[in-house]
Design a protein that fits this description.
With about 400 residues, the chain is of the alpha/beta class. The protein folds into 2 domains: about 1-265, Aspartate Aminotransferase, domain 2 (3-Layer(aba) Sandwich), CATH 3.40.640.10; about 265-400, Alpha-Beta Complex (Aspartate Aminotransferase, domain 1). The chain is about 40% helix and about 15% strand. The protein has helices at about 10, 15-25, 50-55, 70-85, 95-105, 120-135, 145-150, 175-185, 235-250, 255-265, 265-285, 305-310, 325-335, 365-370, 385-400; strands spanning about 1-5, 25-30, 90, 110-115, 135-140, 155-165, 190, 210-215, 230, 290-295, 315-320, 340, 350, 375-380. The strands form 3 sheets. It has a 7-stranded mixed β-sheet with strand order 3-9-8-7-6-4-5, with helices on both faces. It has a 5-stranded mixed β-sheet with strand order 10-11-14-13-12.
Length: about 400
């Protein structure tokens, strides 16, 4: 494999984000293919025994086994790192594999983590159920209240873990404040950036240490594969994450990596258009619903902060209907164009009821604490003509008595 200008940091550092998304991390074989090659192999052969020994000893570059390296996966990792402004990236089998690896690789019995209460249901399960099994203490706070971060710090606090904007309540965390606070106490910040991606927000620019992703969402953007990624410094990736990943194996398949590579080429275009569509739809339905939660609208309590941290507010927002689950279900059942689905980041418009889907495994008390009410609905606004989406929501709202 021949590396191209897309892998030369002295060249790619001059490229703008859209160029990095299309050409970053590209390798080519002797055939000179334009689109990235798909390498479906579990292992590799070597010219001689000394070569393989040197590779396994870390003394020579090259592939050894696809649980550790694969050319297609490596291209994806280089491209994501370039787009994120990170020194290194390791791809994962799914978004939750990424979150789990990013936490477990650096936490041990007796450690303490501070986590945001507003989070994806499975992320809360990690904090509430999995980590305590290994003697790792957790304090869950309101991440939108800056003072609560410092108040929660203990002598054994090792990690701050949060999403911004958060799923599904769209809480916005003050990245600069929290990252500065963490750094001053020697705490590692792990930020789930799946709702925004590097196209709309780069947490590392605000001092975050680690950025984790469900690449299933906006990076793929078309609902095709599961994928995840973890970005950070070269030292952290190599010395902290890689030993965990090498020995536990949450690896991404080459085919899924290839699909995400194709998705990244249009990420910025999709993210910006879907953000525009979501903002227009949010304005359209806000007068008819309660509790609109859209960071791009002035009604959001942290609208100004969101617009300082993000280039656009993203395709996802949430709102409440006063009639609880019955009215929420009535609205969903009246949809004709928008699909009922718990996925996000897709080019199709999708809507779900978090209390009965993404956060159904949580207790009623935990859902209430984080604001996931029975009347809450979350929508991912896609690339359809926004007038068609508005008409569909208009019909569904009317049918639901709103």
């Amino acid at each position: 494999m021949k590396k191209t200008t897309g892998t030369d940091r002295s060249i790619t550092s001059r490229w703008r984000p859209a160029t990095r998304a299309v050409r970053g991390g590209t390798w080519r074989s002797e055939h000179g293919e334009t689109s990235e090659s798909l390498f479906l192999t579990s292992g590799y052969t070597y010219d001689d025994a000394a070569t393989v020994a040197a590779r396994f000893a870390g003394e020579a570059d090259g592939m050894t086994y696809s649980r550790l390296q694969n050319p297609t996966v490596a291209m994806l990792e280089e491209r994501i790192a370039l787009m994120e402004g990170a020194e290194a990236c390791r791809a994962q089998a799914s978004g939750m594999a990424a979150m789990t690896a990013a936490l477990l690789c650096q936490l041990s019995t007796g450690d303490h983590i501070v986590a945001a209460r507003a989070a994806f249901g499975s992320c809360r399960w990690l904090v509430d159920s999995l980590l305590p099994r290994f003697g790792i203490e957790a304090t869950v706070i309101d991440s939108a209240v800056d003072d609560e971060w410092e108040q929660a710090i203990r002598p054994n606090t090792k990690v701050f873990f949060f999403e911004t904007p958060a799923n599904p309540t769209l809480d916005v965390v003050n990245l600069q404040h929290v990252c500065d606070l963490a750094r001053s106490h020697g705490i590692v910040t792990v930020v789930d950036n799946a709702f925004a991606t590097s196209a709309l927000q780069r947490p590392l620019d605000f001092g975050a240490d680690v950025v984790a992703y469900s690449a299933t969402k906006m990076m793929d953007g078309q609902g095709r594969v599961l994928a995840g990624a973890v970005c950070g410094s070269q030292q952290w990736i190599d010395e902290v994450l890689l030993p965990f990943q090498r020995n536990t194996g949450p690896n991404l398949s080459p085919f899924s990596a290839w699909v995400v590579l194709k998705g990244l080429e249009t990420l910025e275009l999709r993210a910006m258009r879907q953000s525009e569509n979501a903002l227009e739809l949010g304005r359209f339905i806000e007068p008819r619903v309660a509790g609109m939660r859209h960071p791009g609208l002035p009604s959001h309590p942290r609208h100004d902060l969101a617009m300082q941290q993000m280039t656009a507010a993203g395709p996802i927002f949430a709102f409440e209907v006063p009639g609880g689950r019955a009215q929420a279900f009535a609205l969903l059942d009246a949809l004709e164009l928008v699909d009922i689905s718990n996925n996000i980041g897709d080019s199709r418009s999708l809507m779900c009821h978090p209390a009965s889907t993404t956060h159904a495994s949580m207790t009623e008390e935990a859902r209430a604490e984080m604001g996931v009410t029975e009347g809450l609905l979350r929508i991912n606004v896609g690339l359809e003509d926004i007038e068609d989406v508005k008409e569909d929501l208009d019909r569904a709202l009317t049918a639901a008595g709103l």
